[in-house]
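Hi team,

Below is the intake form for Prephenate dehydrogenase from Brevundimonas vesicularis. Please confirm the fields before the structure is written into the shared record.

FORM ID: S-0412
PROTEIN: Prephenate dehydrogenase
ORGANISM: Brevundimonas vesicularis
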Amino acid sequence: MRERLGLIGFGAFGRLTARHLSAGFDVLAHDPAASDGEGLATLTDLATAAACPTVVLAVPVEALEATLIAIGPHLAPDALVVDVGSVKVRPAQAMDALLPPGVRIVGTHPLFGPQSGKDGIAGLRIAVCEVRAAKDARRVAAFCRRALRLKVFQVSPEDHDREAATVQGLTHLIARVLMAMEPLPTRMTTASFDRLMQAVDMVRHDSPAVFRAIERDNPFAAEVRERFFSLADQARGTAAKR
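The structure came back. Fields below:
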């Protein structure tokens, strides 16, 4: 009999998660907004999903604290809880503070989404962060490397967020501006412009909650954002000179 895995959240990323974990686990998913497991998971109530030996939290970062409070009473004493949020410092702090003492906790951030992972995830990247015990993070990292064939980076939540503030923060910020400028030219384009728009298209369908998490919940994002706008103002001044 295969091990059960509880999946809290069955949105776009939850479904992607189920697609790649259902080969090795019986996935029991809970999401009040979902009506069909799509052959990837069995939909169930929160208590049943949370009682599984491993529980993956695929909920928006802004909903994480309420989710932690809700699942706490139903978790097995030695359950493994893994989150997949886009930021790591505040979620790691919340999980450590709100989950029962014996629960094992690992923070992860798959550095891809439903769009970039639609043709498979082998070779893509994931960050794995220790929260309560290094051995749990090592085991999750090994699973991601061997079973999912992901390229794994074991980092602290702080180091993750510091880099993500630039890598994700600027990508989503620039994409948001370019989408606001649409329609943009599609006929006489350059290779560099086409690649820029490919980057926009990779995040175009991310939920507003993802943008809010990246820009508001990353403690390093504001500094990166202000530096970017300051340099953009300098570039605007240079461009206006005759």
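SUMMARY LINE: The radius of gyration is 19 Å.

Thanks, M.
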